[in-house]
Amino acid sequence: MRIFFSFLLVLILCEANGQQGSWRGQLRRSDGRNIVFNFEWTTEQLKPVWYINNSREKIRVPDVTIKNDSLIVQMPVFESTFRAVYRNNKIEGVWQKGSSSGIVSIPFTATPGNERFSVKGPASQNITGKWSAVFVNEKGIADTAVAEVVQQGNQLTGTFLTASSDYRYLDGVVSNDSLFLSTFDGAHAFLFTAKIDNDKKISGGRYYSGATYKENWSAYKNPKATVPYGETSMRLKPGQDHLNFKFNDLEGVLVSINDDRFKNKVVVVQLMGSWCPNCMDETVFLSDYYNKNKQRGFEVVSLAYEYSTDIERSKKSLKKFQTAFNIKYPMLITGVALGDSLRTEKTLPQLTPIMVFPTSIFIDKKGKVRKLDTSFNGPGTGEHYEEYKREFEATVDALLRES
Fold first, then answer.
1. Fewest CB within 10 angstroms: 146, 167, 283, 338, which?
2. b/e 182-193 (16+ beta carbons within 10 angstroms → b)
């Protein structure tokens, strides 16, 4: 009887109030360039659950708390929370995200509906394919990227690949001669707009990120476009071939790369942070691969560079990672902040500066560094992700075969 009553109560609360179904969320920037995304509100085992949708990605968000008309939604991986009021079939509040300067808040609203962007007319062009793109920030500094998009009628999906990361799953539309793409994953909050001049040229692009950041961008069709990964490459310093570090794990236990656990084994050292969506994507792969291959003499150890030197804050964020992805290998807190200009010298002085996160360092059975990989591509990049996995597995297999 108690179970039936609880189930009936959930139905009354959710269905009668119109909460369940498709919603259109907006992060409301002060410049009016709101970052839009879609989510589904449903019930699982008598509890409210959100699913945030970005193209092929569905992020399950089970930590949804409703009390009277108050709504708190904790994102499952990042230091990221919605605090809002649900009233008159509308959600109004803020999205709060951790950063190196503290907590950043952006006004947030959501209304029922599954339309991401409005379509005002048929697409003037089909822009499916690979594009060379250039982003220019407000200081005039330019960065190159590769855009890969798929258009079906008005619907547009794809991503941008850069030397430092990929922009994960972008979702949007082509309306007349304009394109609109966005994504939200709890850390990334992006909006892209541009004019499609023809099927070979895109101009007047604007890229918006978070509360205030923006850049200009443009692109031209180029089937041979490549990402300049050399810009973010790392090397061993002259005369160095081993790493030598020791940091505390999430339980406060000191772990060293020279511990017996890692001797005579192939080891991948992952440089990461709990703030990093691309690190999340790599961790999904690494954790699964490790759990299936550790018996072969393979180990992984993560070195975390967090927003601050607050160890308790770092532990809390990293434990979310650990739980979410069933991580069984050590996760170590370097205690050095992401923004520290001396982060490499203080943690891995054997290397040239750490340029990107994630970075993977492959160590052979004799403890020698054999490869530094700064070119991770996540699942939002399709075939590039499959290529990354093939190269990773081939590298590990080759090192395991060595005596």
1. 338
2. bbbbbbbbbbbb
At residue 165's C-alpha, the angle toward residues 159 and 166, to 5°, is 10
**How many domains does the chain contain in total?**
3
Cβ neighbours, 10 Å, residue 197: 15
Could you tell me if 206 and 249 lie in one domain? no
Q: Are 87 and 162 in the same domain?
A: no
| Residue appearing with tokens 């850390």 | 187
Nearest to 165 by CA among 31, 320, 359, 314: 359
96-105, Cβ contacts within 8 angstroms, sequence gap of 24 or more:
97/186, 97/187, 97/210, 98/275, 98/307, 98/313, 98/317, 99/275, 99/307, 100/307, 100/308, 100/337, 100/338, 100/339, 104/210, 104/211
pLDDT at position 2: 44
Alpha-carbon 118 to chain mean position: 26
Indicate whether 16 pLDDT > 80.
no
Write out the residue range of the structural domain in which residue 71 sits: 2-112
What would the mean pLDDT of 334-362 be, rounded to a whole number? 98
Q: pLDDT band at 18, cuts 50/70/90? A: low
If one counts every other C-beta atom within 10 angstroms of the C-beta of residue 216, the result is 17
Beta strands in 187-342 (DSSP E): 189-198, 201-209, 213-221, 246-249, 254-256, 266-272, 298-304, 331-333
